[in-house]
Fold DUF4179 domain-containing protein.
Amino acid sequence: MHENHEDNEQEWPELTAMKGHVDEITIPSEVKLAVANGMSLGRKRKRRRMMARITTFSACLLVLASVASVRFSPVVAAYVGDIPGLRSLVQLINSDKGLTLALENNYMQPVGLSDEHDGIKLTVDGFLADESRVIVFYTLYNMDGRKQAVNLQEVKLMNNEETSVAFGSSYFNEDWESKQGTIDFNIHEGADIPDTLDLELKVGKDRETAGNGPVWKYVIPVDKSKFEGLKETYDINETVSIEGQCITFGTMTVYPTRIGLEVTYDPSNTKELFAFDDIRIEDEQGETFGTINNGISATLIDENRQVLYFQSNYFRQPNQLYLRANSIRALDKSKLEVLVDLDRKELLSQPDDRLTFDQAGITQKDGHNTLTFHLKNDDPLDENRTYSLFENSYSDATGQLYDSNGSGGTSDGNVYQYIKKADYQSPLKLTISDYPSRIHGDINLRIK
């Protein structure tokens, strides 16, 4: 990923300022919190565990928005070279094979609409769309050279409420001329994309700063003829058992921008299955298309069903397709609760002795009341991975429910849970939403 670093800085100077501020793989806690604060879901989820997962997945948007030292194919370069603003923007999706293939097949719809307020201009450069997803590419310009952090806030489509949205955010406390990024709209099943995208958003360091500020507005025309009917559906309907845990793979739908795979977890499973480590779709040539890591990676259907999203091979048209996986992060359902005694500053229950609690108790970090945990983890599968361990909701000994102010983690194993200021009765009860324990087995299903 980092080859030809100096050449790229000369070729795309507008992205140079974006480099180095965020590590490509390790996401610090303050970044995760910024992304969590920037996330907006179009409808409420039945389980807050999925909401936490979606927030974590969406943090990868920020990572991609900071990576400028990549190359894209000559085909893509030739296509976007004539569209202002898109040449460098294409790097934001370079790690997604499906989106790169979409560009190679003339799938981008250029826009070029701008709005400006208080010395900040935002240009919508173009978008990719199909019946399930819209990815908007934008550029922010610092017109008067002000020194401040600027992030997108309150992003929404005014004429389509049946969407969820993910977008990155960043903290650049120095001179900057332009920033580029993507907004990923997830279209709920059965909802139609309108003839125009009536996009509204605010710009500011945080929601409070942007709250009373102006609204950036765009009416973006959509050529639906470019994507209507472009999908392929496969009914897999097969159940596998991994260490006694049953998983059923249902319908898989291949769109130009992504693949959606319905997955059902047996309610009688003794373990909570958090996430697949390496699930992928593979063709007869051995080329793999992994899960989406720069946008929304999953949506919840109900308590035991979800749709996983993969990079799309729609424009490849393979002769054979296989679904493969080898390990799944999972934990006994009896070990999901973590009890924190705030008076004695210790854990009364935890999944295992790898998770410990900071003896400082409730501290201040990044302006938040914070519980700090440490997770000892030397599994090679988790190299450079950070964990947001807990669901958004928690309770105290009285049964009072609270919503957390976010969570985060660092590569050295520290895990932060940001909690509200309150007169808690110990112990606090938190629920695990992801953990580095696993079940292993070979999944190998023929799809096509």
In short: The CA atoms of residues 53 and 342 lie 27 Å apart. Residues 232-326+441-446 form a domain with the Immunoglobulin-like fold (CATH 2.60.40).
